[in-house]
């Protein structure tokens, strides 16, 4: 802030001059001889009316100094709060300017039409089996699978990423990374899959985890077709996650992080499912069954939405 603060100061110096008369020794001397409101001389108006501003720059320095010190202290406090906000476990109170500058969420109309680009959101509690089912769908339906969590972990580990540390903290705490980052990562990955692999149907796994993400994505990227929701109770998910944690190497597959993730899921992510449900855009599947049983249900439900597998069967021939 040094420059704006200085330019304000320069403008204010002129504005402050009239009031600085009280610091002028000659004015002080005169006021000692006068009663309040008494004219300052035979041809002078009473003292409560304005008199010409003093030209001496010396008189404004105390005010300039106080202003500078105040601005400096204010900037220090703002900087400190920004830093604290970035590492708060329940989400930041200040966003980094760099995040605000990310373009994906600033559009007021969608980048793509739902006629050209199909997005299926995949939601469910941590460990419900979203990733497992997405893998199966990819091989049978040719969808492009994009996991928001995987994209965030990739960005976290990318050398030189300005968001790496922040993402790490949010993931460990099981809270939701500011939507600007996640939506930009998703948009980039979608563009890449369209350009390089000619994909136009996306399974977006583990997103949107918060209402603001859902609204921003549908407003600025593309409206979703529907949401595939994998439903399982916490005890089932906990057992799966602890088991996965033995080999996953994930920083959040431990009991402390899992509890926080469950809480975030109930408080922050379920409202997203409820909102889509109210729009009749949710396919809910019982995720406590075996992976194959869950998948059978998924396939049956997709068929109801007119979505069929594209799997090519290779038949062995004699030639
Ligand atoms: N239906 C199932 N029955 C038993 N185990 C399952 C089932 N589906 C997935 N799993 C196992 O549970 C663990 C979590 O599955 P998966 O990674 O697919 O869940 P997820 O919903 O994507 O989790 P997260 O949200 O944490 O990424 C994995 O170890 C997986 O092998
Ligand atoms: O939209 C999202 C998706 C994920 N996160 C963070 O990542 C972790 C892990 O996500 P998984 O889907 O389990 O891989 C999640 O707990 C969040 O901290 C996010 O912030 N926003």
UniProtKB/TrEMBL annotation:
Query: Composition bias, kind Polar residues: at what positions?
Result: 19-29
Q: Which PROSITE patterns does the record cross-reference, listed alphabetically?
A: ADENYLATE_KINASE
Enumerate composition-biased segments (Low complexity): 46-55
The record's Pfam families line, in alphabetical order, gives:
ADK
Q: Where is this region: Disordered?
A: 19-55
- Region annotation LID: residue ranges? 243-253
According to the record, the signal peptide region is none
Residues annotated for ATP binding in this entry: 127-132, 244, 289
What are the boundaries of the region NMPbind?
147-177
EC number in record: 2.7.4.14
Q: Where in the cell is it found?
A: Cytoplasm; Nucleus
Q: Which controlled-vocabulary keywords does the entry list? A: ATP-binding, Cytoplasm, Kinase, Nucleotide-binding, Nucleus, Pyrimidine biosynthesis, Transferase
Cofactor binding note from Swiss-Prot or TrEMBL: Binds 1 Mg(2+) ion per monomer.
Q: What do we know about how this protein assembles, alone or with others?
A: Monomer.
Q: What is known of its domains?
A: Consists of three domains, a large central CORE domain and two small peripheral domains, NMPbind and LID, which undergo movements during catalysis. The LID domain closes over the site of phosphoryl transfer upon ATP binding. Assembling and dissambling the active center during each catalytic cycle provides an effective means to prevent ATP hydrolysis.
Role noted for this protein: Catalyzes the phosphorylation of pyrimidine nucleoside monophosphates at the expense of ATP. Plays an important role in de novo pyrimidine nucleotide biosynthesis. Has preference for UMP and dUMP as phosphate acceptors, but can also use CMP, dCMP and AMP.
Q: What is this protein called?
A: Uridylate kinase
Q: Which gene encodes it?
A: URA6
């Amino acid at each position: 802030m040094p420059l704006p603060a200085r330019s304000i100061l320069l403008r204010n110096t002129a504005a402050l001059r009239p009031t600085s008369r009280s610091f002028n020794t000659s004015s002080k001397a005169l006021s000692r001889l006068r009663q309040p409101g008494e004219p300052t001389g035979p041809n002078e108006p009473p003292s409560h009316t304005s008199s010409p501003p003093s030209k001496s720059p010396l008189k404004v320095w105390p005010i300039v100094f106080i202003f500078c010190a105040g601005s400096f202290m204010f900037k220090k406090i703002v900087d400190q709060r920004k830093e604290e906000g970035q590492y708060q476990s329940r989400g930041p109170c200040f966003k980094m300017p760099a995040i605000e500058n990310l373009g994906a969420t600033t559009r007021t109309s969608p980048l793509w039409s739902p006629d050209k680009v199909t997005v299926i959101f995949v939601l469910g509690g941590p460990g419900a089996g979203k990733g497992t089912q997405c893998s199966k769908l990819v091989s049978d339906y040719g969808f492009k699978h994009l996991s928001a969590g995987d994209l965030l972990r990739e960005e976290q580990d990318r050398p030189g990423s300005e968001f790496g540390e922040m993402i790490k903290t949010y993931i460990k705490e099981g809270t939701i990374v500011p939507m600007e980052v996640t939506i930009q990562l998703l948009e980039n990955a979608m563009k890449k899959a369209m350009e390089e692999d000619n994909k136009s149907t996306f399974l977006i796994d583990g997103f949107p985890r918060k209402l603001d993400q859902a609204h921003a994505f549908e407003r600025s990227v593309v409206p979703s077709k529907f949401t595939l929701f994998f439903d399982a109770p916490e005890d089932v998910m906990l057992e799966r996650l602890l088991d996965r944690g033995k080999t996953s190497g994930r920083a959040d597959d431990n009991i402390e992080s899992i509890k926080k993730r469950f809480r975030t899921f109930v408080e922050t992510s379920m409202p997203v499912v409820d909102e889509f449900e109210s729009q009749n855009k949710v396919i809910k599947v019982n995720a406590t069954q075996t992976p194959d049983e869950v998948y059978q249900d998924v396939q049956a439900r997709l068929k109801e939405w007119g979505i069929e597998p594209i799997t090519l069967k290779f038949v062995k021939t004699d030639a």
